[in-house]
Amino acid sequence: MIDSCDEFNEWGDTRTVKRARKSHKCTECGRQIQAGESYRVHTWIYDGQFDSSKSCAHCMVAEDWLTENCSGYLIHGVWEDINEHCQEYQGRAKCIARLARIKIGMERDWQIRRGPRKGQLMPVPQLPAKLEPNLHH
């Protein structure tokens, strides 16, 4: 997705906040980032207007994987891009199982759905391995 995107921002910055002082909404998965959690802040100016978004620590893993394998990601498009990779490389790439866990985690707002820990936040996923060079787009 990043390959077909033009850079339109007049200015942009990204930083990681180690501990949130208050709750925020994750732009990518939609869940509430609670006070004390780490998150990433993206700020930019586009067409003269200032805007920003926040990504929870869980979604930051997906962003980092896309940056490492695809040279970046689109804000508001991380789930879609991860989903496309899962479909495109299913059965052909070793990293797909971990990537699919990220996709499912995002769909479930990172909440455990069954068992004794139902309703609790999933652990932050590990960064999946890079795509094998022969599969890279």
Quote the average pLDDT. Answer: 90
What's the alpha carbon Rg, rounded to whole Å?
Answer: 16 Å
Say what the CATH topology is.
first zn-finger domain of poly(adp-ribose) polymerase-1
What oligomeric arrangement do these chains adopt?
A: single chain
Strand content: 15-25%
Overall tally of domains = 1
- Large-scale geometry: globular
How many strands appear in the DSSP assignment? 5
What is the strand arrangement across the widest sheet?
1-4-5
Instruction: Give unreliable regions as ranges.
Output: none
Major sheet size, sense and barrel closure: 3 strands, antiparallel
**Gross CATH architecture:** 2-Layer Sandwich
How many individual helices?
A: 3
Secondary-structure element order, N to C: EEEEEHHH
Portion of residues within helices: 25-40%
What is the top-level CATH class? Alpha Beta
Structural class: alpha+beta
**Spatial gap, N to C terminus:** 11 Å
Characterize this entry briefly.
The protein contains three helices and five strands, in the order βββββααα. With 137 residues, it is an alpha+beta fold. It has a single domain (10-107), classed as first zn-finger domain of poly(adp-ribose) polymerase-1 (2-Layer Sandwich), CATH 3.30.1740.
Provide a descriptive summary of the structure in words.
The chain is of the alpha+beta class and 137 residues long. The chain has one domain (10-107): first zn-finger domain of poly(adp-ribose) polymerase-1 (2-Layer Sandwich), CATH 3.30.1740. It is 28% helix and 20% strand. It is built from 3 helices and 5 strands. Strands 1-4-5 form a 3-stranded antiparallel sheet. The chain has a two-stranded antiparallel ribbon with strand order 2-3. Strand 2 (24-25) and strand 3 (32-33) form a beta hairpin. Helix 1 (57-70) crosses helix 2. The longest helix has 14 residues, at 57-70. The mean pLDDT is 90.
